[in-house]
Design a protein that fits this description.
By secondary structure, the chain is an alpha+beta fold. It folds into 3 domains: 4-89, Acyl-CoA dehydrogenase/oxidase, N-terminal domain (Butyryl-Coa Dehydrogenase, subunit A, domain 1, Orthogonal Bundle); 122-226, Butyryl-CoA Dehydrogenase, subunit A, domain 2 (Beta Barrel); 231-380, Up-down Bundle (Butyryl-CoA Dehydrogenase, subunit A, domain 3). The protein is 49% helix and 17% strand. The protein has helices spanning 4-21, 37-49, 66-76, 82-85, 92-102, 105-116, 230-266, 278-306, 312-337, 348-358, 365-380; strands at 30-31, 34-35, 122-125, 143-147, 150-161, 168-175, 178-185, 191-197, 208-219, 223-224, 268-269, 272-273. The protein has a 4-stranded mixed sheet with strand order 3-6-7-10, covered by helices on one side. Strands 4-5-9-8 form a 4-stranded antiparallel sheet, with no helix packed on it. It is globular and about 80 Å long. Its cofactor is FAD.
Length: 383
């Protein structure tokens, strides 16, 4: 259920994206490793003037429902720059959610408040290279060892979104009894960016970095939540974050579909508009079906989370179904546009790249299917 207040905010976000943000897509500051912080802040100042920065967070710091968040983020995603402009982009949005749930009052003041206000960026340092944590976080190699009232952290991380330019990071490391999360101000001399990877996607400021952590000393008050509870907190963050990815990229896929539909109506071949050729018209019809099914899947999984359930199974199902449906939509749009579809004359080319990467973000489809199959085996194996 969406309140009248949130419904009005959705309408305002939609208008802001269409009227103010979309023209920024051609801005030269929108580069291969994401838009510059200067561009993001310029858009955010315009959003701030309209009261649209982090519209999913209430003035008291609490979040609107997951179903309401879905409506807001789908509207924001109509441009790849939209979630950044209104401050609902990953990894910041997921970090906001986790900090609200777990952080101390002082941690919220220092880290969460400026993040929600859209004045800083953050990073989430979990994934590792060299056979470390990835889809299987239990393989974590980065270590945190206690040293009096401090912890000493060593290891390497990779594909760390937004680390270049972030004001702080949530660092996850293996501790004596499990895994622990730590809040660290950035930059820090003990956290070194080895390189920023060149990747297929280009929507997130700072790109995705490979990072070395060497003799990082943090105090006890920088522990996020409880010691050794990092894996549990990762699930607190990741179940909703999988869904918010679905929400944002749904908006982008809808934009690509709208562009392809407009093209198919206007463009003629063999004596009639492209849309009148079944090969094209049926692709657009399939897009409508995939978009609606994806939307229903998002709202179903969000509704489960709103009941207070953990939602891991539902978010895994949605992540697989939605990411693959939206990729089919984007792929068809490229095909319908022909040569224009592989050019940067429209945003469809970027939508295709971003949504392809989305099939890997927060766990590739195969890992989620494997997890769901394990659950089926457990439920159906006699005791």
């Amino acid at each position: 259920m969406i309140s009248a207040e949130v419904a009005e905010t959705v309408r305002r976000v939609d208008a802001f994206i269409r009227e103010t943000v979309i023209p920024y897509e051609a801005d030269p500051r929108n580069g291969g490793h994401g838009p510059t912080d200067e561009l993001v802040q310029e858009m955010r100042e315009k959003a701030r003037a309209l009261g649209l920065v982090a519209p999913h967070v209430r003035p008291d710091g609490s979040h609107v429902s997951h179903v309401e968040t879905a409506a807001l983020l789908k509207a924001s995603g109509y441009s790849p720059l939209g979630p950044l402009a209104v401050n609902v982009m990953a990894p910041d949005e997921g970090n906001m959610y986790l900090l609200h749930k777990v952080a101390t009052a002082e941690q919220k003041r220092h880290f969460l408040k400026p993040l929600v206000e859209g004045r800083t960026r953050s990073a989430f340092l979990m994934t590792e290279p060299d056979g470390g944590a990835g889809a299987d976080p239990g393989m974590m190699k980065t270590t945190a060892r206690p040293d009096g009232n401090h912890w000493v952290i060593d290891g390497r991380k990779t594909f760390i979104t937004g680390a270049d330019g972030a004001a702080f990071g949530i660092v996850m490391a293996k501790s004596p009894g499990g895994a622990t999360m730590f809040l660290v101000d950035l930059p820090n001399p003990a956290i070194r960016i080895e390189r920023v990877l060149d990747t297929i996607d280009s929507s997130m400021p700072g790109g995705h970095s490979v990072i070395a952590i060497e003799n990082l000393r943090v105090s006890a008050d920088q522990v996020l939540g409880e010691i050794d509870q990092g894996f549990r907190y990762a699930q607190v963050r990741l179940a909703p974050a999988r869904l918010t990815h679905c929400m944002r990229w749904w908006g982008t896929a809808k934009r690509a579909h709208d562009i392809a539909t407009g093209y198919a109506v206007k463009r003629h071949a063999f004596g009639k508009p492209l849309i009148d050729h079944e090969g094209v018209g049926f692709m657009l019809a399939d897009n409508e079906i995939d978009l609606k099914q994806a939307e229903l899947m998002i709202d179903w999984a969000a509704g489960v989370l709103d009941t207070g359930a953990h939602g891991t199974v539902e978010s895994s199902m949605a992540k697989v179904a939605v990411s693959e449906a939206l990729f089919r939509v984007a792929d068809r749009c490229v095909q319908i546009l022909g040569g224009t579809g592989v050019s940067r004359d429209t945003v469809v080319e970027q939508a295709f790249r971003e949504i392809r990467a989305f099939r890997i973000y927060d766990g590739p489809s195969e890992v989620h299917r494997w997890s769901l199959a394990k659950r089926l085996k457990k439920l159906n194996t006699p005791a």
